[in-house]
Amino acid sequence: MQIQKLYSTIKPYAVISLLVLGGISSLNVNAMGHKSEAHNIEKSQIEGEISNKHHDKMKKHLHRLAKKLDLTSEQRNEIKAIYVAMKEDRKADEKSLSSFKEQMNSLLKAGKFDETKFSVIYDKYQKNFKMVAMEKAKRRHAILQVLTPEQQSKYLTMRKHR
């Protein structure tokens, strides 16, 4: 009985101490406050994985379109070229929107949500959002131009169900 009581009083302190020690050992910052080289390597690996995810997503989307719309090889090649061009545009957009994401993350981590800061940040990047939406609309338009009228109606129906 006394052992259980002792165990129940010690257990929370043991868990807290393990969490604190784990947090301290996982800090990856040198004395100057800069991130270490290991962090930069991890970041580049993550960016490579994200790039691969986009490539896989594009490939999967193209395969789904080809299957659902019964695309010819010529249509597949044209749509693939559209996706490749889109990929280059997306890289430029990602660079411009990365600072927006960083600012939003810092705003979300704050103790209290500041609506005015959000409005200022959002307004600052509104032009970029418009540009991204326009590129997406251009891509969809270009895909529609490649398709036959029957395929176009199927494509638009597929878009509704998303």
User: What is the quaternary state of this protein?
Assistant: single chain
Span of the ends, CA to CA: 60 Å
Q: Name the average pLDDT.
A: 75
Largest sheet: none
Shape: extended
Q: Which sequence of SSEs, written as H and E, runs from N to C?
A: HHHHHH
Count the DSSP helices.
Answer: 6
Computed CA radius of gyration, to the nearest angstrom: 25 Å
Low-pLDDT residue spans: 24-34
Helix-strand category = mainly alpha
How large a portion of the residues is in β-strands, by DSSP E?
under 5%
Short description:
With 162 residues, this protein is mostly helical.
Mind explaining what this structure looks like?
The chain is an all-alpha fold and 162 residues long. It is built from six helices and no strands. Helix 2 (37-69) packs across helix 3 and helix 3 runs antiparallel to helix 5. The protein starts with a helix and ends with a helix. The model is unreliable at 24-34 (pLDDT under 50).
